[in-house]
Design goal:
It is built from 2 helices and no strands. The chain is mainly α. It has a domain of about 40 residues. The radius of gyration is 24 Å and the shape is rod-shaped. The relative contact order is 0.07. This is Putative transporter.
Amino acid sequence: MAQHPHDPHHPASPVHPVDEKPAARRLVPAALQHLAAMYAGVVTPPLIIGQAVGLDTAGRTRAS
């Protein structure tokens, strides 16, 4: 059975840019940016809300 020329599993099919694995020189900075965004998203809201409700520095950083 012959494969269709537009079959995605055909070896001669080009890889779509979304499915490509980036080179390490692009992958590492993107991973670091992702980690920074995750950290900022978790840490920033309690600091802003704590300041808005009038907590002092010790109250915003103390763990229960």
